[in-house]
Amino acid sequence: MDKQIKVFYVEDEPFLGRIVKESLESRSFEVCMVSDGQRAIPAFEGFHPDICLLDIMLPRKDGYAIAAEIRQRNPRVPIIFLTAKTQTEDVLKGFQTGGNDYIRKPFSMEELIVRIQNLLQITQTGKAAAESPLQDPIPIGRYTFLPWKYELRYETETRKLSHRETELLRILSENRRQVVNRKDILLQIWGDDSFFNSRNLDVYITKLRDYLKADAAIEIVTIKGVGYHFVVG
């Protein structure tokens, strides 16, 4: 690695935490590990990580609450949930509170590192686009979309978007007047079309519909079994 990747790791199981921390450090990652959810945000603010690994079940403050607070401070840093939970609703709650990915316990270090690298690659691609000086605002009906700033503007209001909200809206806006295949969206944004990522896409589509509801001429039409048709005016 040219640059040492900084991993913020919140885990209350000391044996597992030590194994993961030492394994990541042996592969040249810099790791800041916290075992108490209540101390997570101050540690996050002092560390400025490239990626976050959050256990869900934590003392005093759970991973969902930590992710939501991280998102308020940094809408772009990728978050992976580490979870022993198996219910679909728990995984979806993780995505809704700001998570980008999840991995179930027990997991292999090889799988964890692949997920870290894939998520960082997706994020860096978005960051490069955000820093490009050749970006123009994208009109979407009565809205203005600024993907390089992760912003959606409507009259005097500005809404900050997450990385995946931005990427999804970018794909839809670039392919308006044609149907975008659902599988293509999943592969571009999540890297695979698993059932859980598919459910996550449903959540993001619902969010975008809500964000764009002030303009009745805008519609994200679901084409059952195929994908979405983004209608503007």
What descriptors fit this protein?
alpha/beta, Rossmann fold, 5-stranded parallel β-sheet, 4-stranded antiparallel β-sheet, 23% strand
Strand order of the largest sheet: 2-1-3-4-5
Distance between the termini: 47 Å
Beta-strand content: 15-25%
Could you say what the CATH topology of the largest domain is called? Rossmann fold
Radius of gyration: 18 Å
Please, how many domains? 2
Name given to the CATH homologous superfamily of the largest domain: Response regulator
Query: How would you sum up the major sheet?
Result: 5 strands, parallel
- The backbone outline, from C-alpha atoms, is elongated
The structure class reads alpha/beta
Residue-averaged pLDDT: 87
CATH architecture of the largest domain: 3-Layer(aba) Sandwich
Enumerate how many helices there are, as a single number: 8
Poorly predicted ranges: none
* Tally of strands: 12
**Percentage of residues in helical conformation:** 40-55%
